[in-house]
Amino acid sequence: MDRLSIDALAGRLEVLEREKHRWKCLAGVTALGVGLLLAIGGLLGSRVAVAQQLEKVGNPVPRRMEYKITDTIYLNQMDKPFREMAADGWELVQVVPTEWTTGGQGQSGDFQKGIIVARRPMVPGK
Length: 126
Prior knowledge:
This protein is an alpha+beta fold. It folds into two domains: 1-62; 65-121. Helices cover 49% and strands 25% of the residues. Strands 1, 2, 3 and 4 form a four-stranded antiparallel sheet that branches. The longest helix has 53 residues, at 3-55. It starts with a helix and ends in a 5-residue tail after the last strand. The model has no long low-confidence stretch (mean pLDDT 81).
C-alpha cells in the first residue's frame, strides 16, 4: 500500500474517533440531565400537586372523624338508642348483626342482636 492511502485512512479514523467521543459526551450529559429532572420532578411534583388539591374551592378538606361502637343490642329495639345518638350528632355508618338464631334444623332464621357503628366530626382541640 501506498504511504498516502495509509495517511488518509489514519486521518479519517481520527476524525471518526473525535465524532464518536463528542457523541458519547453529549449522550452522557443528556442522560444526566434527564435523571436530574426525574429526581427533582419526583421530589417536588408530589408536594405541589397535594397543595394544589387542597386549594381548590370544590374540594373540601377531609375532616377527622371519631367513631363509636355500641354494646350488643336487640335489633328490634334499636330505635331509641339510635335516636339518642343522632341527637348527640352521631351518624349511622353500619349496623352489624352478631347473633343468628333459627327455629330448627333446615329452617330459616334471623339475626336477633347486633351492634351499631356510628361516627361524627371530631371537635377541634381533642
